[in-house]
Amino acid sequence: MMSNWFLHGDYGLAPTNYPALLLALLLAFLAGHTISWVYIMTHSGLSYSRSYVSTLIILPVIVALVMMVLANNVVLALGLMAIFAMVRFRTILRDALDTAYVLAVVVIGLACGTQKFATAVIGCIFTALIMLYFWYTSFGTRHRYDIIVNLHWSRTLAELDPLRHLLQRHSRKARCATQRSNEGYGGTDLSYRLLLRNPARVEDLLTQLRALEGVSRVTSVQAEEESEI
User: Which of 13, 71, 89, 203 has the most Cβ atoms closer than 10 angstroms to its Cβ?
Assistant: First the structure.
């Protein structure tokens, strides 16, 4: 009896095609996932945000749910525009994913108000599963480096090989972030970003760097994840 109610749970003017609804939500999720992966791999700069990556996945799902709820109904479309306008002007949201949550509950509420009960349930469960997936997997987090090492190199840049070999022994990836000539004192100030082979051996690396001929003023800081949490 309960299953019969659910299968006939949409009382809107247009009947709901449930296989098409699930296919639309799944396809929107996969398409958003693809775009977000491209964003993660190609993004450069300091403005990277994990919540924005998650939003790129959830928004296509919400939009697909909106289109299924509206079902070419102009009156519902105008009502949805009025609701979104109210949310936009009365609420300030600083996080992109917070906006996605607001959109999700608005669309689900719209589905309930238009008597598309089964659509509301399916959309709510699907959206909740995606949000839990973001939380459980920390999807979108990028961890490229463990530490940043700053040092002064008193020898010429043509003699950097011993320093490079030492860094390569301790790290899987080493990138020289900055290189600045120290006028008046001679030598060069260098800054390296390192992805360590064994993060527990940071002190060993620093000790060997300080013992290397030509190296002085060695300092290190932990590299934060490239993500706004």
Answer: 71
C-alpha to C-alpha distance for 106 and 147, rounded to whole angstroms: 43
- Which residue range(s) make up the domain with 93? 2-137
User: Which of 93, 111, 137 delimits the end of a domain?
Assistant: 137
Distances (CA, A) of 46 to 51, 52, 133, 225, 227: 14, 13, 25, 11, 9
Q: Tell me phi and psi for residue 55, to 5 degrees.
A: -65, -35
- By CB atoms closer than 10 A (0-12, 13-18, 19+), residue 15 is exposed
Residue 188 DSSP SS3: strand
Q: What is the pTM of this model?
A: 0.50
Mean pLDDT of each 10-residue bin along the chain, 229 residues long: 57 69 84 80 68 82 78 66 58 64 72 70 85 80 78 88 90 85 75 86 89 89 59
Instruction: Looking at the structure, tell me whether residues 35 and 112 fall in a common domain.
Output: yes
Tally of domains within the chain: 2
